Predict the structure.
Amino acid sequence: MTAPKKIRLNKSDKQLILQYSDGEFSLPAEYLRVYSPSAEVRGHGAGEGNLVSGKINVGIDKVAAAGRYALQIFFDDGHDSGIYTWAYLRELCEQKAQKWQAYLERLQKEGMGRDPDESPVKFIGG
């Protein structure tokens, strides 16, 4: 898999913009964070991995080359252990709509949310 022709970090919009010969893709920081290829997120075996919630406000501090095959993304919540290969970044670009919908459905199923200030506890008046 080839690297993007151009990589741009838009900190104010919390977006990583990847330009390929066949188009440009914009990946939100929250999306990249919840789909981090790190063991912390993906888990150590088969299965869905660990569900990351409460990252609606996460941003990206910086990105750096990881050899000639990947990017390392440094998020402002301290997470920086995922190495995003060129192939995985392209997959995230091409499957963004499906992956995002699957993430939202999984959050709902688990009773979790995107906002870190949301309470998972439902209070019933009494």
Q: What stands out?
A: The radius of gyration is 16 Å. Residues 96-110 form the longest helix (15 residues).
